[in-house]
Amino acid sequence: MLEKEIAKRRIFGIISHPDAGKTTLTEKLLLFGGAIQKAGAVKSNKADRAATSDFMEIEKQRGISVATSVMGFEYKGCKINILDTPGHKDFAEDTYRTLTAVDSVILVVDCVKGVEEQTRKLMKVCRMRHIPVIIFINKMDREGKVPFDLLEELEKELNISTRPLSWPIGIGSTFKGVYQLYQKKLKLFSGLIKKQRAEDVVQLDNLEDPELDKQIGEKPAQTLREEVELVEGVYEPFDLSLYRAGYLAPVFFGSAINNFGVEELLDTFIEIAPPPQARETNVRTISPNENKFTGFIFKIHANLDPNHRDRIAFCRICSGKFERNKFYTHTRLGKKLKFASPTSFMADAKSLVEEAWPGDVVGLYDAGNFKIGDTLTEGEDLKFMGIPSFSPEIFREVENADPMKSKQFEKGISQLVDEGVAQLFYQNQKSRKFVGTVGELQFEVIKFRMLHEYGASCNFRSIGFQKASWVSSDNDQSLQQFLRSNASRVGADKEGKPVYFSHSQWDIDTEKRNFPDVVFHETSEW
Ligand code: G4P
Questions:
Q1: What spatial distance separates the first Cα and last Cα of the chain, rounded to whole Å?
Q2: Which residue's CA is the closest to the ligand 1 atom numbered 26?
Q3: Is 382 part of a structural domain of the chain?
Q4: Greater confidence, 224 or 305?
């Protein structure tokens, strides 16, 4: 039973630079899966993208993203979970954390713009974690870059080998369809239409078929034959194990809005994307088919309704069977907890779950027990690894602006940090608090939420640091000496781990030379 349930499941994230078409592709995948009936059901993260912050929009956005944080659907016998990731760069930390809960990723790239800033950053995280990545080159109905140039750009800029598994026939106004290199099948579309109908598709099994010349014209047919021959000659056959190890990215071409190339992507995805994988803990590797349940929290969402202060903690199930109303151990607190209303997510609908399996995500109502990275087990004392904090890019000192509300202030900051809205660092025996984020927007979100949810006011003061490096050393004396001589620049993270704050890479390089025994880490886990 367990093995069968695991084999059916795929859990992945869709990532992209804003505007490349992540929302549109997600929606088309859900349409194929029958999880939604019409386009428009998945809300575009417009508020997310707004250049200026509009608090109500942020709040609305948070509301929407509860429903769209996980979108489950069934397709050809597979149970697929898409984890949504915010596109806006100010919410990048949220995206990085979501990537800890997936087994693979689909990266959407705009064929006109090619590789963009967020594409690069997100791929860096995928590479670091060896997450298998499929690339979908979108908007082929526009006059974009030449496919061969795009592939070269992806390899060079993203530092990953690529292997096209579909090939476009024409581009822009001449885009006529895609040839499935993996299944060796050809699909032609007659005209650009918002919703593709079965009768608009001509399927051919053989590139030599004269029907091809008739359908798209002799010259384009010849070009396609030549290009496919070139692709097959230049690229090694697709190597599944290299893809699954995160070294090789299969590439698909299409146009999400026109529904072109999406089915090809999905059909290949369910064949090649990895089922739920084993995961590392601080004690041992947990295989999904172990009988005992384990899982971890990768996202926490505050309830918008002020009358219901509970939060939803999203738990990725890693092994065994999760059951409603059964006691599980919260390993950080050493506390037994049971959940009366665990929730599963199917597109925009939520429902109560009695049981769930590895590769599923359940929403757990929480009154403040969880923080990101927490582990649940059937009693074994362990903690899932690989959910580190990354260095923030903007730092501000936070101060309580209302001395009468210091309790509310402390509680608010602590809970927002547990939720992962920002990171908190301390200096001078906790007398100074630094909040670190990846975007300006978070400071406004914190200010707003502190006031509206906790009744606390806060002020932020710029402190100019641009990077936090976690520091360690095998030589404790060296580490202590380093900490002493950099007293004004060191502090601790929320767990008490020592951190060095710097203005630039130059600072770090200088200190590395001064203290060769001290190691500077980019993330909190090493
Ligand atoms: P995102 O989530 O990655 O930010 O992108 P989203 O899907 O919202 O798409 C961004 C814009 O690109 C949208 O246009 C969308 O309609 C368009 N788009 C998506 N796929 C394709 C495609 O295959 N071809 C073309 N030509 N356009 C595509 P918009 O004008 O910003 O929004 P809307 O008013 O169309 O919703």
A1: 36
A2: 139
A3: no
A4: 224
